[in-house]
Amino acid sequence: MATGSDRVAVELCKGINGLDKVVLRESRGSSVEVYLYGGQVTSWKNDHGEELLFVSSKAIFKPPKAIRGGIPICFPQFGSHGGLEQHGFARNRVWSIDTDPPPFPTVSSNKAFIDLILKPTEEDMKIWPHSFEFRLRVALGPGGDLMLTSRIRNTNADGKPFSFTFAYHTYFSVSDISEVRVEGLETLDYLDNLQSKERFTEQGDAITFESEIDKIYLSTPTKIAILDHEKKRTFVLRKDGLPDAVVWNPWDRKAKAMADFGDDEYKHMLCVEAAAVEKPITLKPGEEWRGRLELSAVPSSYCSGQLDPRKVLLSS
Ligand SMILES: O=P(O)(O)OC[C@H]1O[C@H](O)[C@H](O)[C@@H](O)[C@@H]1O
Measuring from atom 10 of ligand 1, which residue has the nearest CA? Predict the structure, then answer.
C-alpha cells in the first residue's frame, strides 16, 4: 500500500459496523474514505475538512444492502437495464486490496491512492456467467481532486465475450437543491426513467431542480459542472470512456419511500453519474475497458452563462 511519497498517507482501518475501510490523506488536509464493501467511496473532504459527498444519515452499512451515498459502483448493470438486480452486484460485494496491480501509463507518485479488485465468486457466476477482473484505483491528488479509474477485463476461459453497463453513481452534497444548476447537459438527448425510458431532447438552459428527476443524458461532453450558489462551490466532473450522465434526485415522495434515506435529505444531495448505459460495453476474452472519473471542487462566484470549467479551475 505504499504511495511513493511521505506527504500522503494510506491507512486501512475499521469503519461503521466493523467494515474495512481505507483512508487516503493528503498533506494539505483533504481526505477520502473507501469501504471495501462495494469498493465504495463514502467520504471526500477538502482541505478545510468539509464533506463534499452526500451519505444518508440512514445509510445501512451492512451487506447485502448497498450503502446509500458516496460513490456506489454500478456493474455489470446500470439500473434495471437488464436481467440482473438493480445496478448489478459490484456495489454489494466485498472487494479486496490489489497489492500488485498492472502498471498505469501515468505516474501516480504525488497522489495517495489505493487499488481494489473484484473477481466473481462461483455464486456470482450463477447469476452472471462470466469471469472478470475489475480493478478500481481511487486516488487523491495534491490539490484535493478525487480520481477513480476502473479497469475491467474479460477473463472468460470459454472464449465468450460479455457486455455490461456501468456508472459511478456519485452523490454530491449540496446546500439546497433549489439553488443548484448543472451545466454541460443542455440541448442533449436523454432517456427519461420517469417516462418509460422514452427519449427526449433537453432545452437550451442549464438544468435546475424543482421536482423529481431521473434522466440518462446521452453522449455528453467530457466536462460537466454542478454549481451550488449558496455554498459558492462548483463541482467539476471530467470523465473518460463514459459517454452518458445520469442525473437523479428522488424528491420528497420517493425519499419517504426509501428506508435508508431521510425524508428531507433530497434537498441536500444530487446524483450526477458518469455512465455507459445506452450502448453497453462489449469485451472479448483478454480485452480490457477503462472508465475514468475525476472530480474537483472549486470555489465559485458564478454568473449565469459564464461557466468555463477550465477558467473556474485556473482562477481558484
Ligand atoms: O435505490 P437505488 O437502487 O440505489 O437506485 C437509486 C437511483 O439510481 C439511479 O440514479 C437510477 O437512475 C434511479 O432510477 C434510481 O432510483
Answer: 248
